[in-house]
Please model this.
Amino acid sequence: MKKALNAWTVEKSADMEQTFAAVAKAGFAGIELNVDAPGAPHGLSMETTASDYADIRRLSEKYQLPVCSIASSLWWQAGMGNPAHWDDGQALLYKQIEAARELGAGGILIVPGGIGGDITLDAARKNCVAFLQSHRRYIERHGIFGGVENVWNGFFLSPYDMASFIDAVDSPLVGAYLDVGNMLAFSTPEYWIEILGDRIGKVHVKDYKRNGGLNSGGTWQDITHGSADWKKIIPALRKAGYDGYLVGEVFKSDPDMEWDAYYEKVSGEIGTICGY
Model:
């Protein structure tokens, strides 16, 4: 497995070149970029152009730092669970696929959900499956993996939910973008990995410290400082056949720590859980 870092982790004042330089210097083997609102720090947007992609490709080559995947903060607005938002969802999906294709990334992150108001859990699931089924040929034609992520939106409450959802979409290029920290508050990551198996195509790593047992509350912590049992999680991923990037999606909490030192710390923590 290889170490990567999501660009959200990087200091907001850094421009794109400073971002690539810092992440490469810290020893990461890849970087995950994000489609955000226009003007967001070191991010892509719905307005990113062919010239912008060319500039990023040059940075990727200069710093020998591949773009490994494309995430987005905009799925919270373009919720595929509500058909009223499907046009926005399609535009975002296509933009992420465009970015992945132009930058050589193998996959994108998709957030299903959209529960709320008149959209029940059952309706949101049916709508999300229908949305992805309607675009699976587009995803497959471009050869980009679409990874649905488990986030704190009340949608994937167990690995069985996630597995059955992926199976219902029924595409070889739609699978799990598993965040191994996002279920720590109420479940156990290695159990999810066992059930999802080879559906897992991308992985986010972070850590969460429970106050006690499950559903007891807690706080986000640095990787290896929370309740995640990495000695079980990493072997479970290997057993499932996963050998891709472990993408750190974490945030600096110590204002006195220098940013370069923080990136190196995260790089070392991911290296530690992988055994190198």
Remarks:
- The two ends are 10 Å apart (CA to CA).
